[in-house]
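Internal tracking record. Fields below are filled automatically when a chain is submitted to the structure queue. Please do not edit lines marked as system-generated. If the sequence contains nonstandard residues, flag them in the REMARKS field before resubmitting.
Queue: standard
Priority: normal
Entity type: single polypeptide chain
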Amino acid sequence: MPIGNLTSQLFANIYLNEFDRFVRHEVRPYGFVRYGDDFVLFGASRQQVSSMGRQCAEFLARKLFLEVHSTNNSVVKAASGIHFLGHRVYPNGVTVAPSLARKISRDITPANASGYSAQVLPRRLRRDLPWYLVEQSEAQQG
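SYSTEM-GENERATED OUTPUT FOLLOWS
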């Protein structure tokens, strides 16, 4: 299911709501993150996560007629951080990947700044964010 615009993101959330409920109430992983059609499961062992992944793939195929892409289906240790949608997810928190931090500092404007307020930004970028906005405003006025 390609997620390209706001409407398709909304429909993905509606369509995958049943999947969210299945994961929370039946699979019951240690942790679960889903954004659009991407998701991550957390468990105690490689075997447990592999089993949960199979359960999810079967549910998606049987109930929602969706297929998990084989190249994006992998089991890794969370201690080393999992790259997920421009972020690094660790057992004790989340950080923005350096490439996304550079993109944010390059692309931020006063018009889109509120969209970045929920991001877990690196300390330096969070500190400098107001200055980026001042620079952008001055550039637009001057």
